[in-house]
Amino acid sequence: MDVSEESAKKIAALQVKLDKKLGPEYISQRPGPGGGPKLTYAEGWKIINLANEVFGFNGWSSSVVNITTDFIDFDEESRRFNVGVTAIVRVTLRDGAFHEDVGYGLLENSKSKGAALDKCKKEAVTDAVKRTLRNFGNLLGNCLYDKSYTQEVIKIKVPPVRLPPIS
């Protein structure tokens, strides 16, 4: 299949955007598991907003390929639930190009089984969307896997990103 010159230019321009790295305003940190080193990540809504900017709000879509409840454990002593859910998501661009990846949701010590399942499913899908979008390039989160980059970018202080008010 031959790509027209116009299409080739659009693809090249898109690639230039995707090769850029996330600015510090998109990056957050939280404590690592068990008090380990801090984890550097981008919040789901920020990555989705970026995908809308890069591809256009109608230039991409996501679909859940599979969602699996890995476990629902009930602790008789504490009367609480521990839940884990895995999701596989596909992100498809307007031209048909796509990637798939996996995400995970986990909640421990929940009073409600339903609330735990709800939170875990949403968390797993959001995580999978973020992990899938990163396959398209640095701008959509792949740069966060470059430890030398994250060590430097977290030193830059910026005000938090605020969504504009809806009028």
TrEMBL record:
A GO molecular function assigned to this protein is: single-stranded DNA binding
Q: Single GO cellular component annotation? A: nucleus
Q: Does the keyword DNA damage apply?
A: yes
The superkingdom listed in its UniProt entry is Eukaryota
Biological process GO annotation list? Answer: double-strand break repair via homologous recombination; double-strand break repair via single-strand annealing; mitotic recombination
Which Pfam families is this protein grouped with? Rad52_Rad22 (PF04098)
Q: Which keywords belong to this entry?
A: DNA damage, DNA recombination, DNA repair
Which sequence ranges form a coiled-coil region, renumbered to this chain?
none
Q: Which PANTHER family match?
A: DNA REPAIR AND RECOMBINATION PROTEIN RAD52, RAD59, DNA REPAIR PROTEIN RAD52 HOMOLOG
Q: Which family does it belong to?
A: Belongs to the RAD52 family.
Write the protein's name: Rad52/22 double-strand break repair protein
Organism name:
Dichomitus squalens (strain LYAD-421) (Western red white-rot fungus)
Q: What is the lineage of its organism?
A: Eukaryota, Fungi, Dikarya, Basidiomycota, Agaricomycotina
